């Protein structure tokens, strides 16, 4: 027996399988870094950095990125504390990503400037240990041959009451909304985006950027970068990205008019050449008249059009984007007084356990008159919690499918609330694909979204 083991061990060594037999080699060591330049412009760039811990669990980390010279300057970074000394750029873990178990990964990112050519990193260390690494250039733009939603449909536009693709044929985009990116940025990384694109076969990622509640107003430049980075991650996987200016409290979008103009001028200029971006200018106006919402829209839309003339813009509606129904009004206030702009759609939201037949009737009536997009809905009550209402959700989704109205579900996150698609704790790990990570709501939505799109191509 001993001889047999020795023989096996020798064969294993020859085959490079020593780890199976030698206890010391079982624990992997070191780290892996994937550094991706997600976009680059004259004198500047943005990069995403995925750090995977291949060693023992660590409760704090510092990544050092060696640049060939000091010609590259860190401008800002996110998801870590960033600094630069000479030609070394460092990032240290923060509260929620400080602990990295074996195999766990964290996504951070930076914006930098450079003179001459953009220098590429030459080495990475994590807590002083050398990492294996890869440096990728900007991902290629989706094209028709790649079979992705953006590759097939290209730049979308409004045609009659529908959203149409590059062949001028109506399409329904089905996908998921992030939770507030100020709270759940750990959920949006390469692994979770891969799962959304490949396993869920989602067409769309809605990027919910709250303006208040520790959102955009606290760090305009940082949130703008994070939104852009998610646009790039969606683009790299052929998904549309809906940039949601997530106003909620206060409900009058005019409170944030100046911020909206600044934000949209920036993201529209930066993303003008992309085909995958849709702008949603006010999540859920509430306690405010349709006239005030329309006035806001007519000031923000020209700012977007000036930078990105061909993108679809979606306008929130009265009563938490219920077309006025939750305020005792109806879609007729919009039909009788539409926003003075072309290539726009109107928002309709519902939460299946709270909003039923009267809301479905309003959506059905409106759908023959107004281009509509369900940019957010829940399978549960309007609080985002409570029991999943399977019957109402199914009735709603069947109706949206029949009317070819696009939708995004609240939320692709592991928030501890029943509207979330992922079980609590999922975003601390790297598995977003197995069925065990899905909540009841996530299981239902994945089964709906992953069915074939059959996008028309002629
Ligand atoms: C909820 C979140 C919850 C968070 C709250 C804060 O689910 O975790 O504490 O926002 O504002 C909406 C909003 C959306 C709400 C969601 C559920 O667009 O921001 O998210 N909802 O209440 N409209 C109807 C329901």
| CATH fold-level topology of the largest domain | TIM Barrel
Point out poorly predicted stretches: 1-28
**Average pLDDT, all residues:** 91
SS summary, helix count: 14
Number of strands: 20
Instruction: Give the biggest sheet.
Output: 8 strands, parallel, barrel
Describe the structure in brief:
The chain has helices at 2-15, 18-21, 23-26, 149-153, 181-184, 190-199, 220-236, 257-271, 290-307, 318-321, 332-335, 357-367, 390-403, 440-449; strands spanning 31-41, 44-53, 62-66, 72-78, 81-85, 88-92, 105-114, 123-126, 129-130, 132-136, 157-159, 162-164, 174-177, 204-210, 240-246, 277-280, 313-315, 344-351, 372-378, 407-410. By secondary structure, it is α/β, with parallel strands linked by helices. Helix 7 (220-236) runs parallel beside helix 8 and helix 8 runs parallel beside helix 9.
Describe the protein in words.
The protein is α/β, with parallel strands linked by helices. The protein folds into 2 domains: 31-131, Sandwich (Immunoglobulin-like), CATH 2.60.40; 142-449, Glycosidases (TIM Barrel, Alpha-Beta Barrel), CATH 3.20.20.80. Helix content is 29%, strand content 25%. It has 14 helices and 20 strands. The strands form 4 sheets. It has an 8-stranded parallel barrel, surrounded by 4 helices. α7 (220-236) runs parallel beside α8 (257-271) and α8 packs parallel to α9 (290-307). The longest helix is centred in the middle third of the chain and has 18 residues, at 290-307. It starts with a helix and ends in a 9-residue tail after the last helix. Mean pLDDT is 91; it is low at 1-28. It binds ligand IDC.
């Amino acid at each position: 027996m001993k001889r047999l083991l020795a023989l096996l061990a020798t064969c294993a060594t020859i085959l490079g399988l020593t780890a199976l037999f030698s206890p010391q080699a079982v624990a992997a060591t070191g780290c892996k870094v994937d550094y991706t330049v997600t976009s680059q412009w004259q004198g500047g760039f943005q990069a995403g950095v995925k750090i995977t811990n291949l060693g023992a669990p660590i409760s704090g980390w510092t990544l050092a990125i060696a640049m060939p010279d000091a010609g590259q300057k860190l401008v800002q970074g996110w998801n870590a504390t960033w600094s630069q000394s000479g030609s070394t750029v460092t990032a240290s873990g923060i509260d929620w990503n400080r602990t990295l178990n074996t195999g766990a990964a964290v996504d951070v990112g930076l914006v930098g400037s450079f003179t001459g050519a953009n220098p590429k990193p030459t080495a990475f260390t994590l807590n002083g240990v050398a990492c294996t690494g890869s440096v990728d250039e900007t991902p290629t733009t989706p094209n028709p041959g790649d079979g992705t939603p953006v590759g097939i449909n290209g730049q979308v536009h409004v045609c009659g009451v529908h959203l149409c693709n590059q062949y001028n044929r109506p399409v329904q985009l089905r996908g998921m909304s992030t939770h507030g990116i100020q709270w759940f940025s750990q959920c949006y990384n390469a692994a979770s985006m891969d799962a959304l694109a490949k396993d869920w076969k989602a067409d769309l990622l809605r990027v919910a950027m709250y303006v208040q509640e520790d959102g955009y107003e606290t760090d305009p430049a940082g949130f703008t970068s994070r939104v852009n980075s998610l646009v790039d991650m969606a683009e790299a996987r052929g998904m549309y990205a809906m940039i949601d200016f997530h106003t909620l409290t206060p409900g009058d979008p005019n409170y944030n008019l100046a911020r909206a103009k600044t934000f949209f001028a920036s993201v529209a200029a930066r993303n003008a050449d992309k085909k995958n971006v849709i702008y949603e200018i006010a999540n859920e106006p509430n306690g405010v008249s349709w006239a005030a919402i329309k006035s806001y829209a007519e000031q923000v839309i020209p700012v977007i059009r000036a930078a990105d003339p061909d993108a679809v813009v979606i306008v929130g509606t009265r009563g938490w984007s219920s077309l006025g129904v939750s305020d005792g009004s109806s879609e007729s206030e919009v039909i009788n007084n539409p926003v003075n702009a072309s290539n726009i759609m109107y928002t309709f939201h519902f939460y299946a356990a709270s909003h039923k037949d009267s809301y479905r009737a309003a959506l059905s009536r409106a759908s023959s008159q107004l281009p509509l997009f369900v940019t957010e809905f829940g399978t549960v009550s309007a609080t985002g919690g409570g029991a999943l209402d399977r019957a109402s959700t199914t009735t709603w989704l069947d109706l949206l499918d029949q009317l070819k109205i696009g939708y995004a579900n609240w939320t692709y996150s592991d928030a501890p609330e029943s509207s979330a698609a992922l079980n609590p704790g999922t975003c601390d790990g790297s598995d977003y694909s197995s069925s065990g990570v899905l909540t009841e709501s996530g299981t239902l939505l994945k089964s709906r979204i992953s069915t074939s799109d059959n996008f028309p191509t002629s």
